[in-house]
Design a protein that fits this description.
globular; Uridine Diphospho-n-acetylenolpyruvylglucosamine Reductase, domain 2; Alpha-Beta Plaits; alpha+beta
Length: about 325
């Protein structure tokens, strides 16, 4: 069949305004956060699972491939239409359908921005743990497709550890539910199979996520070292003591040199490496952990330890790590 027939069928089913096919419109959707390119034949922006299923069935009828796309921030090429075809973009599906604070779950559409889940849960003393560096821009559907993690995955795991259930559209256009609102649903873990499959097995149209209680106290430490080897030994020593910080990240001098002009995080220009370490828990426990981490870093030749107690201080210390990818992209 002709490309014009494919586009006409999509426009009739989804609406002319939500089917893009002009060359200048398609350019925006030929890449993600990587440098690879792949131009689609058409881009569809459905508003619900029914629209996704319809687009999939039409693509199947015309024998063209389908690529799912969220916010386009991924770094693995999962949203790039390598063989053309139809790109189904889920950004219009951006509703938080349900937030059940008592059972600590939320049902969200795939276009919801990662950080917006935590913002919606915050009045209930809850948050969503996976925090990719792009959490202000990336969508939960993309996080599910890529099994995204973030600095706090050391303690809390990646996306797959926080997804309880999924509504999906299969390759033949069926809408199915996998999993549910509880962690121990019977049968095979099909939800786990879909998470991380990059849209190759199904397109996610709703996600049930697990929410966590905010810790009573959170302390962020910045350990400043003259060399990467010193910082590396500190990491080994912290883990070797049986400690599992909420986050433990390293940046070397090259990264800091790129980051500092971009975000002005206050990292020392002459340092060889820094460690970002975050501990949390009950107030006394968090302080004990912070003291222990600081002691280990000093024993292993950290020349300075900076401590962030307030949210403002912690945000400033984390600014460089969260902005590292954007900073490196400017080089």
């Amino acid at each position: 069949m002709k490309r014009s027939d494919l586009i006409l069928d999509l426009q009739a089913a989804i609406g002319r305004s939500w089917v893009l096919h002009a060359p200048e419109d398609l350019l925006v959707y030929e890449y993600d956060g990587t440098i690879d390119r792949g131009l689609p034949e058409a881009v569809v922006l459905p508003e619900d699972a029914k629209g996704v299923a319809t687009a999939v069935r039409i693509a199947r009828k015309h024998h063209v491939p389908v690529t799912a796309r969220g916010a386009g921030t991924g770094l693995s090429g999962g949203a790039i239409p390598c063989e053309g075809g139809v790109v189904i973009v889920t950004t219009r599906m951006n509703r938080i359908v349900e937030l059940d604070s008592e059972n600590r779950i939320a049902i969200v559409e795939p276009g919801v921005i990662n950080l917006d889940i935590s913002r919606a849960a915050a009045p209930h003393g809850l948050y969503y743990a996976p925090d990719p560096s792009s959490q202000k821009a990336c969508s939960i559907g993309g996080n599910v497709a890529e099994n995204a993690g973030g600095p706090h995955c050391l303690r809390y795991g990646t996306t797959t550890n926080h997804v309880l259930g999924l509504e999906i559209v299969t390759a033949d256009g069926q809408v199915l539910w996998l999993g549910g609102k509880t962690a121990d649903t019977p049968g095979y873990d099909l939800t786990g199979v879909i998470v991380g499959s990059e849209g190759t097995l199904a397109i996610v149209t709703k996600v049930i996520v697990r929410l966590l209680h905010k810790p009573e106290a959170t302390i962020t430490l910045l350990g400043i070292f003259d060399a990467v080897t010193q910082a590396s030994r500190a990491v080994s020593a912290i883990i070797g003591k049986g400690m599992v910080p909420a986050a433990l990240e390293m940046m070397d001098k090259n990264t800091m040199d790129a980051v500092e002009p971009f975000v002005h995080a206050g990292y020392p220009p002459d340092a060889g490496a820094v460690l970002l370490i975050e501990v949390e828990g009950l107030k006394e426990d968090a302080q004990e952990q912070a003291d222990a981490v600081a002691s280990i870093c000093r024993e292993l030749e950290a020349r300075e330890i900076r401590i962030g107690l307030s949210q403002e201080d912690r945000d400033r210390l984390w600014a460089g790590r969260k902005g590292a990818l954007g900073a490196l992209g400017r080089l």
